[in-house]
From TrEMBL:
Keyword Nucleotide-binding: yes
GO terms for biological process, alphabetical: defense response
Sequence ranges assigned to domain NB-ARC in this UniProt record: 192-258, 556-711
InterPro entries in UniProt: Apaf_helical, LRR_dom_sf, LRR_R13L4/SHOC2-like, NB-ARC, P-loop_NTPase, Plant_NBS-LRR
Organism of derivation: Arachis hypogaea
Homology family: Belongs to the disease resistance NB-LRR family.
Disease resistance R13L4/SHOC-2-like LRR domain sequence ranges: 967-1303
Gene3D superfamilies (UniProt xref): Helical domain of apoptotic protease-activating factors, P-loop containing nucleotide triphosphate hydrolases, Ribonuclease Inhibitor
Coiled coil spans: 450-537
Protein name per Swiss-Prot or TrEMBL: BED-type domain-containing protein
SUPFAM superfamilies membership: L domain-like, P-loop containing nucleoside triphosphate hydrolases
Nucleotidyltransferase recorded as keyword: no
GO molecular function, one term: ADP binding
Length: 1340
């Protein structure tokens, strides 16, 4: 029960029974180990034990954390104080010296036993002489201590100093057995590590046969043979090369005595004797009635009457008698109050456990017994025991010595000290405040006020406690993440202030009713003010801008929301889903602030079945299901069992399929049960109706600093980050970057590189292997295969091939990716572009739902991203057929031996390749795809394409230094797609006439001055993009006229010249067009022959003398049909019949209005007009019923006017004013001459108007003019029922919105910013004419 060096303390007591002892000094009986003896004798604090009345001090003496060094003790000049305190100090120091001597004895004996184990000779006689002398010195020390206890020494200082001198002398004579330069150093190191309480992990390594097992065997025997190492048990498991997790788990379970089918050993087993056991069942004999039964801890509980069972086992007839014989209070007997005696092995003094607390048996098979609830009615005294066998709270039957109760640290927070409670003699520690008030004679009115004040105080404490819990949780999260937070000191300081605040508040509560009501109110007000300051100073430990902290914050919020029953965590493999949920599982178990009784964890995995999942859940909650029952019956049993469990969390980890909760038997919205799911498959959550707001979508780490912290933490030991020299740091950071923020990849890589630290050659070798896509066996096993499960889950082979096709790009627009799928034959090419893109986006959604691709940065972005380790997984799948080296920092193309004949696809995207050397000609007859995009290539030799004739896709986009292409390109007769986007230095392209299979040609953002030769004969061309070529001024219509199959034609910043004639069937498949015309006649021909033909185009943006045409193609959404006009000179043609948007801008010379510019009717399809920068425009249009143009604007929905310097009226509001019946939005900006927006009468002509914005119109005085006297009391203006918003900004002359009262169906949202002269206007609700309110939000 103690260490050899603690023999002195055992000499002071007489052992009684297994764990009892009698103090030889005060003759009192206690239980426990040497720590409680030390505390009893005054050499340690705490332990819940009274101080020996014969000790040298009446108070407990605080034991130092470490023994003072002998040097310090020897030269101590402390003056002996008078009284008991001085003797107590000398007693303590003598104990320390004796302990020191005992430790030397133990070390010497350990060394001697080691030498015997090694077969070495040592001076046994010299050793025995020293040990004999040390024993005599210990006896002398005990005599001195006894004299000090009896205060019998006249000069204790001299006596202790003499003893110190003798101690130094014997230390000097101590025989030296071990040689630190030999194998003995291994013994010394192992011994020191085993005795270091801060060491939890010890490794022994060396070549085969060097003696690793031999060394460990010695210490195994030492631990078993004596208690000097203070370990209760030692377990030995041989792992070997045929390692598996399952096998190792079973081996450990066997060693620690856990049945394969059972749970961790429960204290209830102490009440029975096991007589037979197998893998399937355990038979036991009741220690009370001596009857035999079979089963587990549940049946023992039922037999002893602790829990109510199913009636298939008899109650023990002697359960009452045996407990009574052991001294248990009758009121605590099983069967009367369902309580039983706690096992002695937990160090309880006749303690009792409530059977209903479920603390005797862990239903999860995961938790250990961490604390017992006291049954004593006098005190609800708890003490946390974080897994420490000597720290479990004790409860006592009968009188309790005040000194047996530990200090304030063991008290329930906010309650009086235990001695105050006991002295009070009350049946409960809390006194009814109302009773005290009535007894004191206070009036009922005062009592109510006092109750309110006290309740407010309690609420302040509760509120602060909630903040404390959040701060502590955040600190625990940071520790779990391995982060070092600078704010830790600030948080600790804040927590101390919060604790002081709570103590003060409780002191005020405790002082009631002694304090007057006035004082109580004043103190409460003061505390409330201080609480506000404390709230404002609450430290922010978690930064929601950091992904991991944001996930923590959201999960905590969802767990505490009583209206949330279903939480989902999704993300790609290895991103940390299980890691996040594990943290909260542990938090729920430890932290009662989450207010859950149980947490059950079930791993589902890919081999899911309803039967298997039901069995797993039943096992976790302690329910038994019959495999022969129907699934629905099993579900009913399971649901009923879960409904009986209050406030629980059920975690289903690693879900791969839709789970019908009703079929399984999982009830939601009952008894506070919450369900947490983790999965890589986002569609699973949607199918299970998990609200989007309850989904936590995890992403890889996006900040380099976070990746680096995680890597160093896992590279280090014992929770301390590794330290690297500056020489290797840059190389190591490059290794970390290869993991692209995926926690699984980072942690595995760090583990594989442990111990390397500053060996730069090993780091460089590791980086080189990663750059060559050679991950190594461990990375492939632990990372790649984990990620591949997502790929395997794609049952459709076509979708799998789409994923592999995407692996050619680290990031790519959905437009390029989908058209690549068309080239590969994965999407049918004969469809319309709309159908192609609908199918393509469905494929993208499928891959995204399986966490295999992601939208880049912005969920609304059309760019798609693939994680680097997923690309490595694709390379692993297609090993030998794919060469994927995206973003590997390559300066040159791979060596020729890597360009094997079996290669089918090569991607070297995103590297730093500048040149392909002359003479390089890969022989790859099966190579179909070559991606050289985003490099720095300046030159490609002519011979490079000689032996890759099967090439169908060549992507050279974004090689900005590339000036020309080799002529051998013209011989790639199988080529279907040639992509040359963003090659800004490219000036020429070889003839393309021989590329008859070419269906997609992109030459965009280059410096070419003319289209490539042979373009006009490429009859299979379906996609032609010649946009953004700043030097390509025009394209002859005759060149593109013969492209009969073209569906997409983009000539942005390029004009079409020549007569636009058309022959039946030519360009009949054209769907999307962007281009400009300089000649009005050419545009008119195009409108008549192309746009206004049957069917027309699905989408177009045409410019007339306009070069800059903004174009964002949306193949599946709204099909915009837009014309931009920058000059009306010679503009004599009809607008397209299906035009929906008209943009007029930069009209410098024209001085008329729209009615004059378009002297013909507008198309009825027109929905939007935008007019920008028309300096000479004075009026937009007449809006008269006689105007053919204005008559056909009846479907116009949006009108935007910008920078019209001379505009003084939007339209003429005469008697014939017809208005715009469908206009919903009107926006006017920088029109400095306009003084009013419109009149009251005109407003009635806009019945569907919803929003008006007026911005920076310097002369605007009134928004709606009435033209009537301001003195008219009945002056009103009525808004349309649809009107919702009026926004006014930077109108320095604006005086009022309207001089009359505005009547509306509901008051609109009116805001005015920087309108300094504006006065309030009044709005009246139609339903209550008498009500008038001012509701303009004015911000200046």
């Amino acid at each position: 029960m103690g260490r050899p060096r603690d023999e002195y303390y055992w000499d002071q007591v007489t052992k009684e029974g297994n764990d009892g002892w009698l103090c030889k000094r005060c003759s009192k009986r206690f239980k426990g180990g040497v720590s409680r003896i030390k505390a009893h004798l005054g050499n340690e604090t705490g332990r819940g034990i009274s101080l020996c009345s014969m000790a040298g001090s009446s108070n407990q003496v605080e034991a130092p954390n470490e023994l003072d060094s002998l040097q310090g003790l020897a030269h101590s000049n402390e003056v002996v104080g008078s009284g008991n305190i001085g003797f107590g100090t000398h007693i303590k120091k003598m104990h320390e010296l004796v302990n020191k001597l005992s430790s030397w004895e133990a070390e010497l004996k350990d060394g001697w036993q080691w030498l015997e184990y090694c077969g070495k000779k040592c001076e046994r006689e010299e050793l025995n002489d020293w040990l004999k002398e040390a024993g005599g010195l210990k006896e002398e020390a005990l005599e001195i201590i006894e004299s000090l206890h009896q205060h019998a020494l006249q000069d204790p200082l001299k006596k202790t100093d003499d003893f110190k001198s003798k101690l130094f002398y014997i230390k000097y004579k101590m025989p030296f057995c071990l040689n630190k330069e030999s194998v003995d150093r291994n013994f010394i190191q192992m011994r020191d590590l085993l005795r270091d309480d801060n060491v939890f992990f010890i490794g022994v390594c060396g070549m085969g046969g060097v003696g690793k097992t031999w060394l460990v065997t010695h210490f195994k025997n030492q631990i078993r043979s004596k208690k000097s190492f203070n370990f209760e048990n030692v377990y030995w498991v041989t792992v070997s090369q045929d390692f598996s997790i399952l096998k190792l788990q079973n081996s450990i379970a066997k060693r620690i005595g856990k049945l394969i089918m059972g749970r961790p050993k429960n204290p209830i087993w102490n009440q029975v004797t096991i007589i037979a056991e197998s893998e399937k069942e355990r038979k036991w004999l009741c220690n009370r009635c001596r009857k035999q039964y079979a089963g587990g801890a549940t049946r023992i509980n039922e037999h002893l009457g602790i829990t109510k069972g199913k009636g298939n086992i008899t109650l023990c007839p002697r359960r009452h008698d045996l407990l009574a014989n052991e001294g248990v209070n009758n009121s605590m007997l099983p069967g009367s109050s369902n309580q039983m005696e706690a096992p002695n092995e937990f160090g309880l003094n006749n303690g009792v456990l409530p059977a209903s607390s479920n603390q005797l048996e862990d239903s999860n098979g995961l938790d250990s017994l961490t604390g017992f609830e006291l049954a004593d009615p006098m005190n609800s005294y708890h003490e946390k025991a974080e897994g420490h066998r000597n720290m479990i709270s004790a409860c006592f039957d009968g009188p309790i010595d005040q000194n047996d109760v530990a200090g304030p640290s063991n008290m329930v927070e906010g309650l009086p000290h235990s001695d105050e409670v006991l002295e009070g003699g009350s049946s409960g520690f809390e006194t009814d405040i109302e009773d005290e008030v009535l007894e004191s004679g206070s009036s009922g009115f005062e009592t109510d006020i006092e109750d309110e004040v006290l309740e407010e105080l309690r609420e302040l404490v509760d509120e602060l406690t909630g903040w404390e819990e959040e701060v502590k949780e955040e600190l625990q999260w940071l520790e779990y993440c391995g982060k070092k937070k600078r704010e830790r000191e600030e948080a600790d300081d804040w927590l101390k202030k919060a604790e002081d605040f709570k103590k003060e508040a409780r002191g005020i509560i405790d002082s009631f009713p002694r304090d007057a009501l006035q004082d109580l109110q004043m103190k409460t007000d003061n505390l409330r003010c201080r609480l506000n300051l404390l709230e404002n100073a609450t430290p922010v430990c978690c930064d929601d801008d950091i992904h991991m902290d944001a996930y923590f914050t959201k999960m905590r919020k969802l767990l505490r929301n009583d209206n949330v029953f279903f939480i989902s965590v999704c993300g790609m493999g290895g991103v940390g889903k299980t890691w996040l949920v594990t943290h909260f599982r542990n938090q729920i178990r430890r932290n009662k602030s989450f207010n859950f009784e149980n947490v059950f964890w079930v791993t589902v995995s890919q081999d899911f079945s309803i039967l298997k999942l039901q069995n797993s859940i039943a096992k976790r909650i302690g329910e038994k299901l019959d495999d022969d029952d129907e699934i629905t019956d099993r579900a009913e049993i399971l649901s009923s069992a879960l409904e009986k469990i209050d406030r629980s969390v059920l975690i289903l980890d690693d879900v791969w399929n839709y789970i019908d909760l009703q079929k399984i038997g999982i009830p939601l919205r009952i008894n506070g049960i919450k369900l947490i799911l983790t999965s890589r498959l986002k569609h699973v959550f949607r199918q299970m109706d998990c609200p989007t707001s309850n989904v936590i979508e995890m992403e890889p780490l996006s900040v380099e600093e976070q990746e680096w912290e995680l890597f160093l933490l896992n590279l280090g030991c014992d929770g301390r980050p590794a330290s690297l020299s500056g020489e290797v740091e840059n190389t190591v950071k490059s290794v970390v970057k290869m993991c692209e923020g995926l926690p699984l990849g980072i942690t595995v890589m760090a583990r594989l590189m442990k111990g390397v630290n500053d060996d730069i050659n090993i780091w460089k070798h590791a980086l080189s292997k990663l750059e060559d896509s050679s991950m190594g066996e461990d990375m492939e096993e632990e990372v790649i295969k984990v990620l591949k499960r997502s790929y395997d889950q794609l049952a459709d082979k076509t979708i799998q091939n789409c994923f592999l096709q995407h692996a050619l790009y680290s990031e790519v627009s959905d437009e390029v990716f989908i058209m690549n799928l068309v080239d590969e034959g994965l999407i049918q090419s004969t469809s319309s572009l709309e159908k192609i893109f609908v199918q393509g986006k469905a494929i993208v959604a499928k891959l995204n739902s399986h966490s295999l691709i992601d939208c880049l940065w912005d969920p609304d972005s059309s760019d798609l991203h693939m994680h680097g380790l997923l690309r490595e997984m694709a390379s692993h799948i297609m090993k030998g057929r794919f060469m994927l080296r995206c973003r590997k920092r390559l300066d040159n193309i791979p060596e020729m031996q890597e360009w094997t004949p079996q290669l089918e696809k090569v991607s070297l995207m995103g590297n730093c390749i500048e040149e392909i050397p002359e003479g390089i000609s890969p022989e790859c007859p099966q190579l179909s795809t070559l991606n050289f995009s985003i490099n720095m290539i300046r030159y490609i030799p002519d011979c490079f394409f000689y032996r890759i004739k099967a090439l169908t896709l060549l992507d050279l986009s974004h090689n900005e230094e590339l000036t020309s292409l080799p002529n051998s390109l013209s011989s790639l007769r199988c080529l279907k797609s040639l992509l040359l986007k963003g090659c800004r230095s490219l000036e020429s392209v070889p003839p393309l006439g021989n590329l008859q299979e070419l269906s997609r040609l992109v030459i965009s953002g280059t410096s070419i001055k003319e289209v490539p030769d042979g373009l006009e004969v490429l009859t299979k061309l379906r996609w032609l993009d010649l946009s953004q070529n700043r030097k390509l001024v025009c394209v002859e219509w005759s060149v593109i006229f013969g492209l009969t199959n073209v569906q997409y034609l983009n000539l942005e910043k390029t004009s079409i010249t020549g007569e636009v004639g058309i022959v039946h069937g030519m360009m009949s498949r054209l769907e999307y067009f962007v281009g400009s015309f300089q000649v009005a006649k050419h545009l008119a021909d195009f409108v008549e022959n192309i746009l206004n033909r049957d069917g027309g185009l699905k989408c177009y943006h045409i410019g007339f003398r306009a070069w800059d045409l903004f174009w964002e193609p949306d193949f599946t959404g709204r099909k915009r049909k837009l014309i931009t006009v920058e000059d009306f000179e010679g503009f004599e043609f009809l607008l397209p019949s299906d035009l929906d948007q008209l943009v007029i801008r930069n009209i410098e010379q024209w001085s008329g209005d729209l009615c004059g510019a378009f002297s013909f009717k507008a198309p009825s399809s027109l929905r939007e007009i935008i007019v920008w920068r028309w300096p000479k425009l004075e009026r937009l249009c007449c809006m008269s019923g006689d105007c053919s143009f204005c008559q056909h604007l009846q479907n116009l929905q949006s009108l935007e006017l910008y920078k019209l310097e001379r505009l003084d009226a939007i339209w003429s509001e005469e008697d014939e004013f017809i208005g715009l019946p469908n206009l919903s939005q009107l926006k006017i900006s920088y029109c400095d001459r306009i003084e009013r927006l419109m009149g009251a009468a005109a407003l009635a002509k806009f019945p569907k108007l919803e929003s008006i914005e007026v911005d920076s119109c310097l002369s605007m005085k009134e928004v709606f003019a009435t033209g009537m006297s301001e003195d008219d009391p009945d002056l009103t203006i009525t808004f349309p029922n649809s009107f919702k918003r009026l926004h006014l900004s930077e109108l320095p002359e604006l005086v009022s919105v309207c001089d009359s009262i505005i009547v509306s169906e509901s008051p609109p949202d009116v805001t005015a910013c920087f309108c300094r002269q504006l006065r309030q206007s009044h709005f009246r609700h139609k339903q209550s004419p008498s009500a008038s309110e001012s509701n303009i939000k004015i911000r200046n």
